[in-house]
Design brief:
Blueprint (H helix, E strand, L loop, with lengths): L1 H10 L4 H28 L3 H6 L3 H27 L4
Length: 86
Amino acid sequence: FAISALATFLLGEGGKRAAISTVCISLWSVRLAGFLFYRILKTSKDERLSNAFKSPAEVAGFWVASSLWGILCLLPHTLLNFSPQQ
């Protein structure tokens, strides 16, 4: 998320709102990544992913769903960056 948010900020029109949005998304994504990394260090494995990765079709479905969710969540930020500033 942080890399996509930064990329759209740098390629887009910029502005204060876009900068604030980029910072918020980056902070949120770093916090989330830190939490997930801490959790996997603490438990040594993730049962939810182990259950989801039983077959190649389930792995593909997981990654497609994750990609679509990421695109959907970043869509407002991307539109903000590429809209004309007022």
